[in-house]
Amino acid sequence: MARVEPFRAFRPAPELAERVASPPYDVLSSEEARRMAADNPLSFLHVVKPEIDLPPGTDLYAPEVYAKGAENLRRLIGEGALVREDHPAYYLYRQRMGDHVQTGLVAGASVDEYEADLIKKHEHTRRAKEDDRTRHIETLNANTGPVFLAYKARPEIDALVERLTAATPTYDFTAPDGIAHTLWVVDAPADVAALKKAFAAVPEMYVADGHHRSAAAVRVRAARRAANPHHTGEEPYNFFLSVIFPHDQLLILDYNRVVRDLAGKSPEAFLEEISACFEIEPADDPKPEHVHEYGMYLGGRWYRLKARPGTYPEDDPVRALDVAILQENLLAPVLGVGDPRSDERIGFVGGIRGRAGTPGRYGGLGRGLRPPPDHHRTTVLGGGRRPRHATEIDLVRAQAALRAHRQATL
Predict the structure, then answer these.
(1) What is the tens place of the pLDDT at every residue in 185-204?
(2) Which of 12, 65, 136, 344 could form a disulfide with 20 if both were Cys (CB 3.0 to 4.6 A apart)?
(3) Distance separating alpha carbons of residues 161 and 92, to the nearest angstrom
């Protein structure tokens, strides 16, 4: 079963929602966030990217960064920009990007079910990022960004969501990037009970995005449980903020790699070495059109790469993923990137920024990945973990309406 709990969110005053809404913390650099929030003291970037209110060059993991985030959260609450729900509620959250629409449930997901693998993980985490999210939750005493979960769609949940979203929404606006955000507060006892019952029939859920946030929630729960002699399992720290979408509404976007250097090789030597495993040709359009194709940005221009047959195991659903082929045939043997979880030479550009954000991001080598096809997606959902960031199943998200799920009462 899937245990999903209603909660008393801190959410924007309706008239301020567009000013409070912000992109997630991990899709903007500090400088990008500083520019975006410069003229908007209500932007939630002051909470999720608090270094923007400290001198440039401040260590992102310094204690004063987390303290500033807590201070900014208290300020938004004190000024009335964020108001707390009177009663525990669920929230239905719809996103629209062009013709694509997806509607999910915002709720508290169970740490117990995460640890029991009823909430399934598909990638490993980076320790530094997990430490960062743990300190952020602990210092702010809040979950400030949702974990994106997916479940295999069920008609009874679809029907219930369709009925509840026929009502007038609490928020409905379009962000500057053109993505529309709509949210309904579901607080009627009968509706809350109906949603809880419907999700109790869901056998398992999957972490689509937010592995570091969910792993941090587990660590915070462990620490607070150990410090609480009267622990019951019902305290807020036993749950983490999540938005839960049916699998058949997901839009899977590319997640691209950028590497700072060529490990001492010249561009010509690098191209010669990778030609053993990849066909290479210049390309005007870097977007891969087929499985096992890649766009590569090198030396101011784009190339199209295609994995040569026989250089990967076609019958292995994980190692045949484009990201696994790239790791095993290029990143590790040619560039020496053995563990992308810890190697500081590699970075990632994903979501709606995609390949457009790849050139110049690190000044070295960029690679565009194609989202995996449906048969790879469903095969891996039921199996083991994918290599880190095999793709980003993006919320197309702009952390719009639900802001803070408190770990404990203020």
Answers:
(1) 999 999 999 999 999 999 99
(2) 12
(3) 8
